[in-house]
Structure formats: C-alpha cells, structure tokens
C-alpha cells in the first residue's frame, strides 16, 4: 500500500521543497503501473496509473470495476470502464500490483 498523507508541520522551506521533489519522483516512477484502488463505497478499481492532481484525484486507464463482495452473486465478471477518474476524497487505499514493479529501480529484483 502507498500512503500519501504526511505531517508537514516540522518541515522548513528547504526541507519541504526537497520532500516535494522526492514525492514527485516517486509518483513519476509509478506512472503506467497497475494499481488497485479501494473506494469508500466498497468498490475496487484496477487500472494503469496515468495521473493525479493536488486534490489527490486519480486517473486510471484501462480500468475495471470490481463490486464489493457481499454475497456470491457479486463476485462475477468485472465491469470494464476504460478511462476512469476517482475523486481523492473517495480513495480508501491504493496498492501497486507487484507484477508491475518488477524491473523498476528500487523495487523488484533484477533477472
């Protein structure tokens, strides 16, 4: 899982700028990786991370929607959405699928 929530109260101006630069590099390294986003209503969207903004809205490409599994009938085929925007205030968790990290600097083992 990835957490984007940080406490900036102890940062000086230079430290915040350095943190911001590292955070931007981290986000850029996740571009075009498969992500699983759980939402407040129980749905899960899986797709390619294309971009985000200051409000933490997320754009996924080739997205598929999986409904909350409350019974055996809701575990059927995912619904294909294509391009999807997830409002930041609806995001509960974000996970990067490990298969998409193989070969990425600092994450997977080299083969």
Automatic annotation (TrEMBL):
Entry-linked PROSITE patterns: SM (PS52002)
InterPro entries cross-referenced by the UniProt entry: LSM_dom_sf (IPR010920), LSMD1_Sm (IPR034110), Sm (IPR047575), Sm_dom_euk/arc (IPR001163), snRNP_SmB/NAA38-like (IPR050914)
Pfam name, any one: LSM
GO CC annotations, alphabetized: NatC complex
Gene3D superfamilies (alphabetical): 2.30.30.100
Domain annotation Sm: ranges: 22-100
Record-level Gene Ontology MF annotations: RNA binding
Family label: Belongs to the snRNP Sm proteins family.
Protein name: N-alpha-acetyltransferase 38, NatC auxiliary subunit
Organism the protein comes from: Oncorhynchus mykiss (Rainbow trout)
Gene name of this polypeptide: LOC110531706
């Amino acid at each position: 899982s990835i957490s984007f929530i940080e406490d900036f109260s102890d940062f000086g101006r230079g430290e915040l700028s350095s943190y911001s630069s590292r955070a931007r590099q981290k986000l850029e390294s996740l571009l075009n990786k498969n992500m699983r986003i759980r939402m407040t209503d129980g749905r899960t969207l899986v797709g390619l991370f294309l971009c985000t903004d200051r409000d933490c809205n997320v754009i996924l490409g080739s997205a598929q929607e999986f409904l909350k599994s409350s019974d055996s009938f809701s575990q059927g085929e995912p619904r294909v959405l294509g391009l999807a925007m997830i409002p930041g205030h609806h995001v509960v968790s974000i996970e990067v699928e490990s298969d998409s990290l193989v070969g990425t600097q600092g994450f997977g083992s080299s083969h």
